[in-house]
Design a protein that fits this description.
Elements (H helix, E strand, L loop, with lengths): L1 H13 L6 E4 L4 E3 H17 L4 E4 L3 E3 L6 E9 L1 H6 L5 E8 L11 E9 L4 E6 L4 E3 L2 E2 L12 E4 L5 H15 L4 E4 L3 H9 L5 E8 H13 L3 E8 L2 E7 L4 H16 L1
Parallel strand pairs: 3-5, 11-12, 11-13
Antiparallel strand pairs: 1-2, 3-4, 5-6, 6-7, 7-8, 8-9, 9-10, 13-15, 14-15
Helix pairs in contact: 1-2, 4-7, 5-6
This protein binds D-MYO-inositol-1-phosphate (IPD) and calcium ion (CA).
Length: about 260
């Protein structure tokens, strides 16, 4: 939580200002602030746990040779929103214990997680087996059992193939749910499923750091989480209220089959 707040302070300081861009792709942007947040988080964790390993979006895998713990970090989730001044982004931090039984397909077993959105002050936290909280209040997923009443979010990702697939499948889904949204920060979206603001979220091709923390938070809040590993460390991801899981997962599978044929 302290590490997430440190990154949140960096984000608040730079938000809305002229930003240094490290790298621009057609579908994505990397900012200096991504790295500044990452430095702040890693320093904060290593001060307390100097031997632990770190897997973070910008630096990759570092340290941890003599430790069974791995911290998985997205220093700034929603970088493109941040760049355009859209106030929907967060920091995502999870701790996993390697060598323990894997849960949800990530390396080892999730221990604890924090996702922090500094502009709204939303601090989502979870500890494996002990539930999830939003700013200290216990979280529960939405009570909903009809897709027609569901508010579903998704993300386009940044690969051409992923964007095409979503354009094909999204059109069918949009006609079956109350609203389909594309908000631009996967970890925050998944946490919003955990607290019932969204009924479900899915995206293809998410990375470990996009989902490591939020998957634990959603699971602990009672969401159904389905993760298919499509390549090492990349996931087709779905989290939703249990009451719409069967209908939603069947619909997503059906649109997958159609886009393959
Ligand atoms: C991205 C955001 C976006 C999702 C992309 C992610 P980033 O993370 O979560 O909503 O659609 O797939 O890569 O690059 O802002 O950390
Ligand atoms: Ca990021």
């Amino acid at each position: 939580m302290a590490a997430a707040r440190t990154a949140g302070a960096v984000q608040k300081k730079h938000y809305g200002k002229l930003l240094n861009v490290d790298c621009k792709m057609r579908n994505d942007i990397k900012l200096e602030v991504d790295r500044l947040c990452e430095d702040a988080i890693i320093n904060s964790i290593l001060q307390v746990f100097p031997t632990h390993g770190i897997l973070s979006e910008e630096r990759g895998l570092t340290g941890g040779e003599a430790s069974e713990y791995l911290w998985i970090i997205d220093p700034l989730d929603g970088t493109v929103n941040f760049f355009y001044g859209l106030p929907y982004f967060c920091t995502s931090i999870a701790c996993y214990r390697l060598g323990a039984a894997a849960t949800g397909g990530l390396p080892g077993e999730a221990v604890c997680a924090a996702v922090y959105a500094p502009l709204t002050g939303d601090l989502f936290t979870a500890e494996a087996g002990a539930g999830a909280e939003l700013n200290g209040e216990e979280l529960r997923v939405a009570h909903i059992d009809r897709l027609a009443e569901a508010m579903i979010a998704t993300g386009f990702g940044s690969t051409e193939a992923g964007i095409r697939k979503l354009c094909d499948g999204g059109a069918t889904l949009a006609g079956k749910v109350r609203k389909l949204r594309c908000l631009g920060a996967a970890a925050y979206d998944i946490c919003n499923v955990a607290c019932g603001r969204l009924s479900g979220f899915f995206e293809k091709g998410l990375y470990n750091w996009d989902v490591a923390a939020a998957a634990l938070i959603a699971t602990e809040a009672g969401a159904k989480v389905r993760m298919h590993e499509i390549s090492p460390g990349r996931w087709d991801f779905l989290a939703c209220a249990p009451g719409i899981f069967d209908e939603l997962s069947a619909l997503l599978d059906q649109s997958d089959t159609q886009s393959h044929s």
